[in-house]
Design brief:
Strand content: 15-25%
Radius of gyration: 19 Å
CATH class of the largest domain: Alpha Beta
Distance between the termini: 18 Å
Helix content: 25-40%
Number of domains: 2
Order of helices and strands: EHEHEHEHHHHEEEHEHEHHHHEE
Mean pLDDT: 95
Number of helices: 13
Largest sheet: 9 strands, mixed
Strand order of the largest sheet: 3-2-4-7-1-8-11-10-9
Oligomer: single chain
Shape: globular
CATH superfamily of the largest domain: Thiolase/Chalcone synthase
CATH architecture of the largest domain: 3-Layer(aba) Sandwich
Low-confidence stretches: none
Structural class: alpha/beta
CATH topology of the largest domain: Peroxisomal Thiolase, Chain A, domain 1
Length: 385
């Protein structure tokens, strides 16, 4: 069994944020990976493990290892959707603890804004492998699936349209403090509510961005990390769960597999929600953080809307959440969870600029989401053991 804090994150890297300017997916991943390796205290020749996946290529880990000039002892490309790169922390931990490798590069990047090939490929896959209970109705997925969850939460618990909008407004306020964020135009609750309707109750501003971007992290054992980096960030606990693939097969539209992934992560870390200083949640749509806050234990089921309202999750509020601007305002190149990890590391190392830095942050929770609330991955990171 993997032990609490047995691995640590060394370097991180970002590239191609927002618009990659004509660079390919492989190019921006290589740029992010080069940064992460350079900041890790290692050389590229020290990297003997690689974990990556892609929305468009089943051969991606082989392509990237070849492109980067890495001959790994361990590699993995398990595809869980957007939660994958937090789930990868568990895979890296098991590989390192088992002695399969020592230093793992986890990386991802895509260019759906400048070269929108992924949407065409996903459309082709949907035609070739249709979801039998939904495909005949031509649902506008993934938006309509998440809209179903939002509508049910509103009906069952009284969550309001304006509470959903507050998630987007807070994300935009954090993005305005982040030089890497894509969307910085001022945003109000009324702007969100009155924007173009996409899938009731969601307007365009309840939905994540479509941007380019790449991220990378280097992970090693905690023992090696202390000799390599002045501020290693320890993975105290992690968990992963998936219950369904199609939204029509979800037993309860208001309860996600985050219940299981969070329980596993907290149990391994030996912590509770009260111990967390900063929270980074996958906000593909404004309902997501509300569901995850409930399922991870930060509030009771049905209380997520009231928990976040009144500017509580915005800069200056008492609950620091999605401090880079999230998928709603910072970056979202098809899959997002690696950027959650990178932002959490930035906060725990006190490297965020000015008002974006959460004072005294020592423990962070990151939570990734894949599919249509299908796969959930949670990790708890800390600046010390």
């Amino acid at each position: 069994m993997s032990e609490r804090g047995s691995i640590a994150i060394l370097g991180t890297g970002l590239a191609g944020m927002g618009h990659a300017g004509g660079a390919s997916e492989q190019e921006i991943i290589a740029q992010a990976a080069s940064q992460a390796i350079a900041r890790s205290g290692l050389a590229k020749s020290d990297i003997d493990g690689i974990i990556t996946s892609s929305l468009t290529s089943p051969w991606w880990v082989m392509r990237m290892a070849e492109y980067l000039g890495i001959r790994p002892k361990f590699s993995d490309s398990t595809m869980f959707g957007g939660s994958a790169f937090i789930a990868d922390l568990k895979i890296a931990q098991m590989a390192i603890d088992a002695g399969e490798c020592e230093n793992v590069l986890i990386c991802y990047g895509a260019t759906p804004r400048s070269a929108p090939s992924s949407s065409k490929i996903n459309q082709m896959r949907a035609e070739l492998d249709p979801q039998p209970y939904e495909h005949p109705y031509k649902a506008f997925n993934p938006v309509s699936s998440y809209a179903l969850a939002a509508a049910r939460h509103m009906h069952q618990y009284g969550t309001t349209r304006r509470q959903l909008a507050e998630v987007a407004v807070a994300a935009r306020q954090w993005a305005q403090l982040n030089p890497d964020a894509f969307a910085k135009k001022p945003l109000t609750v009324d702007d969100v509510v009155n924007a173009k309707m996409i899938s009731d109750p969601f307007t365009a501003l309840d939905c994540c961005l479509v941007t380019d971007g790449a991220g990378a992290i280097v992970v090693t054992s905690a023992q090696r990390a202390r000799a390599l980096h002045a501020k290693p960030i320890y993975v105290l606990g992690s968990g992963f769960a998936h219950w369904h693939r199609q939204i029509s097969c979800m037993e309860d539209l208001t309860v996600t597999p985050a219940v299981d992934s969070g329980r596993k992560a907290f149990a391994q870390a030996g912590l509770t929600p009260a111990d967390i200083d900063v929270v980074e949640l996958y906000d593909a749509f404004t309902i997501n953080p509300i569901l995850f806050l409930e399922d991870l234990g930060f509030c009771q089921k049905g209380e997520g809307g009231s928990f976040i309202e009144g500017g509580r999750i915005a800069p200056g509020g008492d609950f620091a959440m999605n401090t880079n601007g999230g998928g709603l305002s910072c970056v979202h190149p098809g899959m997002y969870s690696i950027f959650l990890i990178i932002e959490a590391v930035t906060q725990l190392r006190a490297e965020a600029q000015a008002a974006r830095q959460v004072a005294g942050a020592e423990v962070a929770l990151v939570h990734g989401n894949g599919g249509v609330l299908s796969s959930e991955a949670t990790a708890i990171l800390a600046s010390s053991l």
